[in-house]
Amino acid sequence: MSAQPRGGEGADLAGRVILVAGAAGGLGAAATRACAQAGATVVMLGRKVAKLNRVYDSAAQLGPEPLLYPLDLEGASPDDYAALAERLESEVGRLDGVLHCAADFAGLTPFASGDPAAFARAIHVNLTARAWLTQACLPLLRQREDAAVVFALDDVQRVGQAYWGGYGVAQYGLRGLIESLHHELRNGPVRVCGLQPGPMRTGLRARAFTHEEDAAPVDPAQYADAAVQLLAADGLAWRGKVRDLTG
């Protein structure tokens, strides 16, 4: 992992270092490109190296050279996240924001016949791993005058219904995590908020809906600018809140 922050003058994220978890996924990839275009050095965290490399190539043409950090959130331990934070401090020297886009969803399954391991995996990747990563990054984030932690959320009115299993349950937990962290951090430099985009054309959604029955989703790139705004200084207005774009 190497490179130093650089960015164009006047860009919303110029000079900032932003960690995007799930940078190879739909919203994560779009947000990585948008953050780079806004002047940020993006640390791209994900488990699929080939996909990360493709996003890296496109993001590098838009702004500062991104940094790659392959890591599988399912198997990563708190020590792994601590090691990530240590490398960021030693090699980059700062961290200004974390955008949580990594997600796990195996598909719609009746609870009575679901795989217990799949349920536990969904809770871990969608909730616990995000909490562990945030905890490890807090000391670095607190060194900045303004830092942001943004959690990408799904609509609980939809995924909190039947068959969504651990993924749906984790979405309720994420809202509790945002609320708890906000009350702990509201008097300091680190702000916490949520971003709830509308339906997106992603692999995750395709596991729940076939193309024929689902005409609602749009390109995740349509929500990438909202992620940039929440990570930038203007995002202060959303401290402790969820920016709901489903309407």
UniProtKB/TrEMBL annotation:
Write out the entry's keywords from A to Z: Oxidoreductase
N-terminal signal peptide: none
Q: Which GO terms describe its cellular component?
A: membrane
What InterPro entries has UniProt attached to this entry?
NAD(P)-bd_dom_sf, SDR_fam
**SUPFAM superfamilies xrefs:** NAD(P)-binding Rossmann-fold domains
Q: Which GO molecular-function terms appear in the entry?
A: oxidoreductase activity
Q: Does the keyword Oxidoreductase apply?
A: yes
Question: Into which family does the record put it?
Answer: Belongs to the short-chain dehydrogenases/reductases (SDR) family.
Name assigned to this protein: Short-chain dehydrogenase
Source species of the chain: Stenotrophomonas terrae
